Every structure is written in structure tokens, then in C-alpha cells.
Amino acid sequence: MASAGSGSDLYRNAIYFYLHFQYNGWFVMALFGILIHILEKQGIVLEKKSFNHFFWTINAGAVLTFGISLLWMKPPILIYVISGIGALLQFLAMVILAKQLFLVKKRMKKIGPKLFYRLLKTIGLLFLVKLFLQLLGAFPYFAAVISYNMDFVIGYLHWIFLGVVSLALLVFLDYFKLILLTKESVLIYVIGFILTEGLIFYKGFVVWLKVSLAVDYFWYLVLASVVVLIAIGNIFKDQLRKTTG
Asked: Which residues in the chain show pLDDT less than 50?
């Protein structure tokens, strides 16, 4: 900011660099690390060669997909190609991991309660949608649409942080018995997440298609956000009940 100014391309890209390697880098890699740690504690060890392929492929994809954060500048076509390759590499990494997990599917079901396994599948699905949106964003047309539509950007980040990351953290905290996670709390949280996500993307489509926004849209967004707040409050209530009971 000191060298180029807060309105410069360099400043904006520096922020995108930080965010990208936060949510697409160490956040995601840490979650995969915790999952693999849990599997190993249960005696489920991934085949070494496949794990190495997964590790290098998903990390290479994370580096290359930073190019997606630069597409708002309408860079040379090479950057689009690199971004697309990065997105495909991350898809490939998930295919490699999914094949390994499918081989131990029956053993994974016995790791914890049914809720644990079901939530893992849900998180996996959310992550695949994230990868699809990432790949979509590598195409010039969609890159241009997304770059000038802040609601799509917020919706995408919302999907990652509240969907993939937060839900995974809740599941892992419950597994290590650091919190008590009930079906009721999870259900309320997921409903709140779906409602807020739907409303954010709805506004994005309204801007994109240049149609009228619902009159009480922001009230709907507030109410949907309250559902998430209720879920968090319910989780806190369960912890108090656990410690006092």
C-alpha cells in the first residue's frame, strides 16, 4: 500500500494472494491433515504412493489456482490456462483420495457415530462443489461475471468458510470430544447455511441478470443469519449441559 497505493492492482492482488493461500492453502490442508490423522489413529493408513500423488497434486493445484484471483485484470490467456490446470489438478487430487477412502468405506463407518460419517460425506460434497465453482471461474466469460459481482465472490467464500471449513471443524472437535455436537444443532446450522447461501447467490443472479431484487430481501437475509446464530447458541447450550451434567 505504501509503494503503489490502496487503489492499485498490486494492493488488490496482495490481498487476494493472502486470502487464497489462507482458505485454499493452509485451512484446507490442515483439515485434510486432521482427517488423515484420525484415519491413522483408527489403523486406516492410505497407500503411500497414492497419498504422495494426492499430496503433490492438491498442493500444485492450490498454487496454480491463485491465477483465478488475477482474472479480474483480464490477463493474457496463459493465466486462464494455468488457472484451469490448477482447478483440474485439485479435482484429480480428490479423485485419488476418494478412491483410497472408498476402499476403506466399511471401516470408516465404524470410526464414530453415524453423524460423523454422514457429515464427512456432506463436507466432501461441499468441497466438490467448491472445486466445480473454482473450475468455472477459470473460464473467461464466468471470470468476467464473477469479478464484477461481489455477491458471487461473497457467496463462494461463504460456501468455503461456513460450509467446508466451519462444518469440518465442528465435526473434528466433536470427534476429539472437545465439544458436544448434536443432530439438532447440526440440522439448524445446515438449514441456516443453506438459507443464507441461497439468498447471497440469489442477489448475485439478480445483479447478473439485471432484474429486481425482492423488496424485503435484507430482512430475509437477517432472519436466515439468525438461524445460524441459533445453531451456535444451541451448541454453546449443549456444552454447558455437558460440563454441568
From this structure: none
